[in-house]
Amino acid sequence: MRILPLALAALMVPATAFAQCGGSFSGFVKSLKQEALTAGYDRATVNGFFKGASQDPKVLRADRAQGVFQKPFIEFSRHLISQNRINRGRAMAEKYDSTFRRIETTYGINRGVLLAFWAFETDYGSFQGDFNTRNALITLAHDCRRPELFRPQIFAALELYKRGNFDPAHTTGAWAGEIGMVQMLPQDILDNGVDADGDGHVSLKTSAPDALMSGGKMLSHLGWQAGQPWLQEVTIPAGLDLSKSGTDSKLSVKEWQRMGLRAKDGSLAAGSLKASLLLPQGHKGPAFLAYPNFDVYFEWNQSFTYVLTAAYFANRLEGASIYTAGKPDQGLVGAQMKQLQQKLQRLGHDVGKIDGILGAKTRAAVQSEQQRLGLPADAWPTPALLNRL
């Protein structure tokens, strides 16, 4: 989630002047309208945008039911990646070759990277979500779980409406307010929207060139480095110090080479480039080196499993072979993962919310306990670790 542009932010009154979340829904909408008027929007625009706004209980149910992210990497990636999706991706690359050439020249984003997002977010535009975007954003901002993330997006959508690029009654998208073929939030559209087809509008729902160019511009602004890799499958030697694995540990490629890491195919990147060793299902499963561009993925989505799968799929679309799955140790599921998080919390670790999802904080806590107990410190929780704790 990005902040408002300076020009718009300057018009915004201090957040403390208005209710940030909760209370009656109608009262909350009334407060938003008043804030918009105070920020300088005319009454007709404000009334037009908020007319018919309603709370959407389906949005709240979707927000609380993200069970797909509980799946481990191998299962998750096999669920999302099929030969049909690869074939369609390559067909789309050919169909929109001129657009991808513009993106590669202008922003330095490989086509495989955008194709992977396009595939995962909307299946190449075939299903973009049917939630009313305005209502979804207001519903999530009114809900007091993460108002700081969604409240600014309401005013970004209002600005898009003022510019003629948003229909509050009919614009639809994902439950979390993302719009279009590559699912961008209103603020991201304001910051990075590109009219690539030259029709005078930024139409991410109906124009693939607009959506792809806008996605490329956003990745560039998030820090993507042209000409650099993002992810590469590697083999690891026996006896490797596994405590050096994980997204928080970054060593030079030359250091990884000295420790015995080798590229599965081809050669590793330049020796001075920093990289992290990722073992999504422990040292007996797939292994990858994640280069600096991989960090940009987390600006698009916070789920480790999702971004790793998206980065791997980008490689596949550009010709990489299928990863070696290996034979990972059995992991934890559902109630077991929550039990693990509770035990780690009692031991003094900050694992965030007890949600049964193996997120970054839980992985770090697992790795710490593995080191303490003399187990392979690969951050992959197993029933054996759970029993030891």
Automatic annotation (TrEMBL):
<dbReference type="InterPro" id="IPR031304">
    <property type="entry name" value="SLT_2"/>
</dbReference>
<protein>
    <submittedName>
        <fullName>Lytic murein transglycosylase</fullName>
    </submittedName>
</protein>
<feature type="domain" description="Peptidoglycan binding-like">
    <location>
        <begin position="334"/>
        <end position="389"/>
    </location>
</feature>
<feature type="signal peptide">
    <location>
        <begin position="1"/>
        <end position="19"/>
    </location>
</feature>
<dbReference type="Pfam" id="PF01471">
    <property type="entry name" value="PG_binding_1"/>
</dbReference>
<dbReference type="InterPro" id="IPR036366">
    <property type="entry name" value="PGBDSf"/>
</dbReference>
<dbReference type="InterPro" id="IPR011970">
    <property type="entry name" value="MltB_2"/>
</dbReference>
<keyword id="KW-0732">Signal</keyword>
<dbReference type="InterPro" id="IPR036365">
    <property type="entry name" value="PGBD-like_sf"/>
</dbReference>
<dbReference type="InterPro" id="IPR043426">
    <property type="entry name" value="MltB-like"/>
</dbReference>
<dbReference type="Pfam" id="PF13406">
    <property type="entry name" value="SLT_2"/>
</dbReference>
<dbReference type="InterPro" id="IPR002477">
    <property type="entry name" value="Peptidoglycan-bd-like"/>
</dbReference>
<dbReference type="InterPro" id="IPR023346">
    <property type="entry name" value="Lysozyme-like_dom_sf"/>
</dbReference>
<feature type="domain" description="Transglycosylase SLT">
    <location>
        <begin position="25"/>
        <end position="314"/>
    </location>
</feature>
